[in-house]
Structure formats: C-alpha cells, structure tokens
Design a protein that fits this description.
21% helix, Rossmann fold, TIM Barrel, alpha+beta, 957 residues, 6-stranded mixed beta sheet, 28% strand
C-alpha cells in the first residue's frame, strides 16, 4: 500500500489546510524558534531553515556580484511603472538565481522603501521614490508586482514594504517621535502603504525604528487597525534590525524585554530581527513572556501561521510545481540592457538654453571634469558591480577618446608633521590580499585590510588627492586610487577602493589647531579618534589601546602643502575644450545615508568652486549632478546654460549620461521631489505636519528652484482636447499630447486635481495620474486617466471619516506641478461634512484643524492619542463647533500637570489639571462653560498636561 503524504505535503490541498496541518505538528519550542529572523530547520518534518530578509532595493544587495540598477529615487524619477515592473522582475529573477547557488540568499525580500521624501535633508532619501504618495505607491506597486511574479499561487519573491510609518529622520531615529495628525496620517503617510498592499503583490511590512505620536512603531495599533484591514491576504510583519531590543534599551518604553516582546507580538510583529543569527535572546524572551502570562500559545500560533503561509507561497513545499524554482536569469544580456534603459530614463534635464544635445559627429573636444567625472558610486543597498560605467567612460566611448580631456578637480596636497612628511610605503604585492567569499577583492573588505603597510612619516612626501565633501568631511586618496582607511588594528593604510561599510572608515575632518598657524589635526570620523604618528606607523587608537595623540594630547599636528588646486586643473581643461561637462554630486556613503541626515542643501564648496572655474574659462559649461538627493543650485541655475540631474545610476550610469548628452536619447526623467532654493525654505526635520508647515509641492507656497514633476526634453509637446466627466465612482479624463518638435522623445503628461473652494486647507494641487509615452516627431496620442472620486476627498477630522465634499474640482493637465497647460472642471454632489457635533461626539484632542507648537503623544501604551505642549504658543484650533442651543459645562480628560485654557467666542475658561500618577493616569476635570451656536474653539496647553479629550454638557443636563 502506498503511504499517503502528510497533508501539509499534499499540493492538492489549499494552503490554509496545509498550514493548519503543519502547525499542529510543530512543538511549542519549534514554533517559537520560527519567530526569529533565522528560523532553524525542523529535521524530523523535513523542513529546511528559513530566513526573513534579503535586501533588494535596486538589485540584489550584500550577496556579491549582481546587476545594479539606478537607486530607488532614480527609479522614481523615471515616472514609468512599466519599466520599474520589469526591473522588479529582473531583480526577483536574480534573487532566485543566486538562491540556487547560495542558501544565504533569502526569498523574502525587504523592498521597496515607500517612506515619502517629505524633507530632502533626510539621509535615506535615496531609498524612497517620491515626496508624493500617489507616485510612490504607483512605482511601489510596479516594483512589487515584478518581484512577486504573475503566477496565481506561487510567488517569485515575497516583498516587504519599508518602513512603517512616518519615518523621515536618521537623527535620533530610535528615540524620536513623529507627531502625525489624523489628516496627515490618512491623506499622506498611510496612502503609500495602502495602495501597494491593496494591489496584492505585497507580502508584508517592516516597522520603522521611530515612534509615531509617542508610541514605537513596533507596537503600533495601526498594524491591525489599518494595515491588516486593507487586505484579506496574510501579511508578515518583520521587525527592523535590533528594534525589538530598542523598546527597552534606548526607548525605555517597557521595563523588561519580556513585556516589550509580548507587546510587539500582540500588536502584530511576526518575525524578530535581533541579535543577528543568534536566536537565543529573542526566543528566551518569548518563553519568558509566556511564563509570565503576557502571551499565550494562540499569540504564537497567529504569527507562525503567517510565516508558514509566506513559505508555502514561495514554493518551499512544492519545488516540483514552483514555476520559479529553476530560475537561472542572472547578469543576462536583457538585464544589462534594462539597467541601461532605466539609467537613461532616470536622467532629468533641469535647464537647457540650447547647448544640449552635443553632436558627436562634429569632432569637437569635450572636457569632462569634476569629482564624480570618473566615478560610479554605489550606496549601502547596492550589490557588487559586475559592469561599471563612469561618465568619463561613457563620453570617451560615445565621442571618441581623442576628443575627450579630463580633470578630476581634486586638490593635490602633502602633509607634514614634526616627524617629517606623511608617506605611503609601497605595497608588497607578493602578499595575499584579503578576499571576499567570491574570491574577488571586495571594496568592503579592502577597507579592513591589514596586509598592507601602514603610513609612516619621514623624508619622502606622498601626494594625496583631497576631496572636501562638505560639512567638514574630507577623504584622502593616494595616486594609484586607493583611499586612506583605518582597519581594526587602528593603523592608517591606503587600502580602500571606495568609502563604504556600515561605519565608514575613509572619512576625516581637518581641524585647525588654535595658536598654531597653519596647524591642523586629522580626526578620523569612523572612530572619533585623532590620527597620530607612532613609532610603528600612523594610526588612531585601537580598541582598548591608548597611544600618543589621544585624550589630553589629541593627535599629531600636521601642516598642509597644496601642490595644485583642483579648480586650476579644471580651468585648464575647460579652456582647451569646446564644451565642458562638470560632473558633481555626492558619495552615497558620506554626509547623508542610513544613520546620518544631511545638514544643508548646499553643494560642497569645493564642487561649487569647480563649476565656477569651468564656466569662467569656458561659458559652454554643463553641470551634470549625480546625487542621491536634491541640491540648492540657485547660482548654477542662474549662471550656466544647461543643468542635468540623475540619481546614482548603477552599472550603466556613465553610458546613459553620455547617450543623453549626445542626443541618442531625449531626456524625459521628471523630478520626484521639490528642489528648493535654500535651506531657509525647509521646515525642521522633525516637523511631520506637512499641512501646517506647508511642506512638499502639495502645500508649499513659495517659488521652488525646480518644481515636483519638472523635466525638460530635446523636443516640444503640446497638450489639447482635455475632457473630464463624472461617471459614477470615477472621473474619466482624456487629453491629447502631440510631439511638435523634430526628434522622437518621451513625454510625461501629469494629471492633478484641486478643490476649488474647500472648507478646510487642501493641497494646492495633487497628482492624480501620470503616463510616460514615446512619440515620433509630429505624432499625437490620446491619453486616458481614470480618477476614483474618492481621490478628491480628505480625512474629515470633525466626523472621523473619509469625505468627498460636494463642490467644484479642477482637473489640471500639464508637464509639471507648476507647468499646467489645460484645466477642466467637474462638479461632485454629496453631503457636506457640516460643523462638528461636539455635544454628541465631544472632541478628541488630536482631531484639531490647526495647531501651533503642540505635539501628539500616546494616550496609552496600547492605543489612542493625546496632545501635549511642545514649543511656542501651544495652541489647538477646532473649527465650526456646533454647540446647538447651548452648553453649561466642559469636561477635560487629561493626565500630567498644568492647565487647559478653553476659548469660545468671548468666553474663556481655565481648567487646572492637578498632578496625576504618571503620564497615563487620566482624570476628568469639569468646569462651567457657556457656549451656543456654531463657533471656533481654541485650546491652549501649559505645563506637562496631556490632553486626551474634551466633552461638553448641555444646558438641559
């Protein structure tokens, strides 16, 4: 008799029944073990080990060679969902292909990042797609669909969205709280996640490190009340690395790790990423929580069930039926072509006075200069390059090497101290260098090499290339190209191909020494220690060691001799050429990255000097910015005839830029975020109230340097025949775009909506659709948009619901958020929201219309919001409160200590709040208040009071 397979092995059964069967076969210890990121094998049931988490933001990361596509913000700049879907498919295929060769590669991919690019100073802006929730969700849907695949049952990979929720600062990211009002929450931050989840290609989310309204994201009630209410599909919530421990260690939100673990598991976290591959601390905490009655087995089973459903969907239990099981698509010709196409489509032409494109057939000399002219920069979430193209490479290939001159523009310097000149000894090439797992020299490992001789000081000087990246941070590089770096032993060596690593070891600060003319110390940023000359070489203090030049004697004093200024070399090259391309920008590991926010929008001073020197020598100067974020290029925009921007474009970046400059491709990238004129235009980094502080193109009332959606072309387009009509739950919109220029090119018509006479502050305009299309000269194409009527709405804080107000709405079509070409009008019927029914509903403190200086905090550790005084006037405004025939009193629910000042019309009452037993001990305090009719209500908070709710009693009570 043939033995029947265990039900969980039976592919004829639905996944749910198979999961039920497998779950009941697992012991409690086996189930607990599955809750850690690195779940061990269960040999007795034939289950393999499983790992949640494989980084795949714009290619397979951290697992050696892979196809490297443009940064996420560059993919956002393409405004092309179809292209991004193909990129996601290619990345998913490479994950599968690498998984077949290396079981460290996981199929649960932690990508994409859908945090909105609210503030351009955010250090991780390179990881997001846009400041607009609609564009972000459209690109995220495309990428996740590519990663997921189109099989109805089995998934190519299982994408997890990062980072839930309202996460836009690295400074204090594990202890700061984002104060997010209900309107901003529902209209902005949730939208990017919601649309992607509802599209059906998302397997889960990762909570962010920060707190929202005083409560850590890892215990957020929104995981159940919002996220899991959006879909019937099981979603896995994977913690961010180390975040479970942060709940106690840095945030001090819970007293014990058992309490924290229980709270996060009950809130909806399923997989704990903590303590690396060592699962013992987390599983011990879960067992401890069970023993204390903080959890029960049902809580464990709920999380394990979700994880098992994920594993079934990835084909783990049905390899013979998994359509992606034998995927071997890796570094294919198609992937290389797609990387080039994506890099080309990401290029944004910011300004062009007719200088571009350049004609390669003209045989004219082009000077390619700047600190990034011969660079192909990667970021923290890049794979290892298999192919590499710098702007210099691309221009030499396209225009002919004989027509290209190059000057990097670094400052060439020598450093001298009392012991002599800083010197880089020749390396002993016979020694075996440090190699990675693939056998190749890995840049991340080069930084930690100890087989090379350390620097010395003596009679022979070594030339060094100095780059000032701004904010006082410099790198130093020896003539052969390797950066000065510090290894674990503390010695300084010329050992790194590029700055990199979780803690960058290649950056320094050049600090003047008071009272010592021309004297400076060299501070190593990665260790926070000064560079000193010792008998055995140049070093910083290693771990557990103190050397001369630390503490009371902080470092050797150096003097710098400049042998050539970078701007002089750039000026010579510029003067010798017909046209100059200055390539500027950032290194994605320096001054803005994960763990580090930017401090300014300014281009580093050294790079500012380079473009000015180039332009002074040759007015035909183009500035090509390659960066992970916007700059305030106000002077350059006013001075130079042409500007371009692209995010770091991956392996094909240089070829793509050269093809755009040569006119082989007409640029059609569009800015995914606003470019401001100066730092003064930005709110504080921790100000998450985009409505109140007028942030992003939605509310910004100033004149940006370059607006959201901006991007020029080598052709010209006209817009016509805009038609918009209401059709049930949709607004049907059509328009015609015509290429009236002489070259084939892409255009990106953008559709915006605006409420004409809203009852509350609404966006100046909001993106409702976009489409990238290719048109030959003279060709025209009709473009159709379907806009759900609900997209015209807003969150009605007065009634706690989504509302589409009746009235007139403009449908605007154009080439950017400020280049509106056509306007149509639609009228929407509906029920007005009406005034606040405060007598029956009361007022939740956080449901204000406007605020000044207050902060939303957690009402309890489990759910709810309260409002407390922050800085400034600490005022709350609730508009159009309906007091009907009148009130006789007011009831304030508050904790802490202070006072609540309530003003209605000409009546003001002060409600004192005596000290309560802690921030969560709410008391009800009553006072007399006479108010009638409909009027605005103002509240002023003082002291440490935490206001949760206001209720009113009527005259007849």
């Amino acid at each position: 008799m043939t033995e029947q397979p265990q039900p969980f092995r039976d592919p004829q059964l639905p996944f749910a029944k198979r999961v039920d069967d497998l779950l009941q076969r697992l012991t409690l210890d086996e189930r607990i073990a599955m809750l850690h990121q690195f779940a061990p094998a269960v040999d007795r049931l034939g289950l393999g080990a499983f790992r949640t988490g494989q980084e795949a933001l714009h290619g397979v990361a951290w697992m050696g060679p892979a196809t490297v596509f443009p940064q996420a913000v560059g993919l956002g700049a393409t405004w092309n969902g179809e292209l991004v879907r193909r990129v996601g498919e290619a990345v998913g295929n490479e994950v599968r292909a690498k998984r077949a060769e290396d079981d460290r590669v996981g199929l649960n991919v932690w990508a994409p990042t859908v945090n909105l690019l609210r503030n351009p100073l955010w250090g991780r802006g390179e990881e997001g797609y846009s400041e607009d929730a609609g564009l972000t969700s459209a690109i995220a849907v495309a990428y996740t669909r590519g990663l997921r695949g189109d099989h109805p049952l089995y998934w190519r990979t299982a994408p997890v969205l990062k980072h839930w929720l309202a996460h836009n600062n690295e400074t204090g990211r594990d202890i700061t709280s984002s104060s997010v009002s209900p309107r901003v929450l529902h209209e902005y931050d949730l939208k990017a996640f919601r649309d992607a989840v509802q599209a059906g290609a998302v397997a889960g989310v990762m909570p962010a490190y920060n707190l929202v309204n005083g409560r850590p994201n890892h215990v957020s009630p929104l995981l159940s009340k919002q996220l899991r209410a959006w879909t019937d599909r099981s979603l896995v919530v994977c913690s961010d690395a180390g975040a479970p421990s942060n709940l106690v260690d840095s945030e001090h939100y819970f007293d014990t790790h058992e309490e924290a673990t229980a709270a996060s598991l009950r809130a909806g976290v399923d997989s704990f990423t903590d303590h690396g591959q060592d699962s013992a601390p987390m599983t011990g905490r879960i067992r401890g929580a069970l023993e204390r009655g903080l959890l029960d087995e049902h809580d464990i089973d709920t999380a394990v069930r979700r994880l098992l459903e994920l594993r079934f969907s990835l084909g783990e239990f049905d390899p013979e039926l998994d359509p992606y099981a034998d995927t071997a698509a890796f570094d294919t010709e198609d992937h290389r072509a797609l990387a080039l196409e994506a890099a080309e489509q990401a290029v944004v032409l910011l300004k062009n006075d007719g200088l571009l494109p350049l004609d390669p057939a003209a045989g004219r000399t082009v000077a390619v200069v700047g600190l990034l002219a011969d660079a192909c920069k990667l970021d923290w979430y890049s794979g290892t390059l298999i192919h590499r193209s710098t702007p210099l490479d691309g221009l030499r290939e396209r225009f002919g090497a004989e027509h290209i001159v190059h000057a990097e523009g670094v400052d060439l310097v020598r450093l001298k101290c009392a012991e002599g000149w800083l010197h880089i000894p020749a390396a002993d090439e016979s020694r075996e260098p440090v190699r990675g797992a693939e056998g190749a020299l890995d840049p991340a490992l080069l930084a930690g090499r100890t087989d090379l001789p350390p620097l010395t000081c003596g009679d022979t000087p070594s030339d060094l290339a100095l780059v000032d990246w701004g904010n006082g941070v410099i790198t130093l590089r020896e003539p052969a190209g390797r950066y000065l770096s510090v290894a674990e032993d503390g010695f300084v060596r010329a050992s790194a191909d590029e700055p990199g690593g979780w803690i960058v070891q290649e950056t320094f600060r050049w600090e003047a020494v008071e009272g010592h003319a021309g004297g400076h110390r060299l501070l190593h940023v990665g260790t926070g220690r000064y560079v000193s000359v010792a008998a055995d070489g140049v070093k910083v203090a290693a771990r557990g060691e103190e050397i001369s030049g630390t503490a009371d004697a902080p470092g050797t004093v150096f003097e710098m001799e400049v042998t050539e200024r970078g701007e002089d070399a750039v000026a010579r090259a510029a003067a010798s050429a017909d046209t100059v391309i200055v390539v500027a920008g950032n290194d994605a590991h320096i001054n803005g990255r994960e763990t580090e926010d930017r401090t300014t929008l300014d281009l580093p001073a050294q790079q500012e000097r380079l473009w000015r020197a180039a332009h002074a020598a040759n007015p035909r100067t183009v500035l090509a910015v390659t960066s992970a974020y916007p700059y305030a290029l106000t002077d350059a925009a006013a001075t130079l005839p042409a500007l371009l921007w692209t995010a770091h474009g991956g392996q094909a970046a240089g070829t793509a830029l050269a093809r755009v400059l040569a006119g082989d491709v007409s640029p059609a990238g569009r800015l995914p975020q606003t470019w401001y004129t100066s730092d003064a235009e930005l709110p504080g980094l921790l100000d998450y109230d985009i409505i109140g502080s007028r942030q992003t193109y939605l509310y910004y009332e100033g004149a940006p340097l370059y607006p959201f959606g901006h991007g020029l072309s080598y052709s010209e387009f006209t817009y016509g025949a805009l038609h918009a009509e209401r059709d049930g739950d949709l607004v049907r919109v059509s328009l015609t775009v015509t290429n009236t220029g002489s070259v084939a090119a892409d255009e990106v018509p953008q559709l915006y909506v605006r409420a004409v006479a809203p009852s509350v502050v609404r966006p100046l305009r909001q993106l409702a659709g976009h489409h990238r299309l290719h048109l030959a000269p003279g060709a025209a194409e009709r473009v159709d948009f379907l806009v759900p009527v609900t997209e015209l709405g807003h969150w009605d804080v007065a009634h706690g619901r989504w509302t589409v107000e009746p009235g007139t709405y403009e449908i605007q079509a154009g080439a950017s958020s400020t280049d509106i070409r056509l306007i149509a009008v639609v009228t929407v019927d509906g029920e007005p929201s009406g005034p606040r029914p405060v007598l029956t509903r009361g007022l939740e403190a956080a449901d204000y219309d406007e605020q000044l200086g207050t902060e939303i905090v957690d009402r309890t550790k489990v759910e709810g919001d309260a409002v407390t005084a922050g800085t400034g006037s600490n005022e709350l405004l609730y508009r159009r409160c309906d007091f009907a025939s009148g009130t006789s009193g007011v009831e304030v629910s508050a904790a802490g200590e202070g006072a609540v000042l309530i003003s209605v019309a000409d009546t003001t009452v002060t409600v004192p709040v005596a000290a309560t037993d802690g921030p969560y001990d709410y008391r009800t305090v009553r006072a007399a208040l006479n108010a009638s009719g409909t009027a605005d209500l103002r509240v002023t908070l003082s002291g440490s009071v935490r206001l949760a709710r206001i209720a009113f009693t009527g005259d007849d009570a």
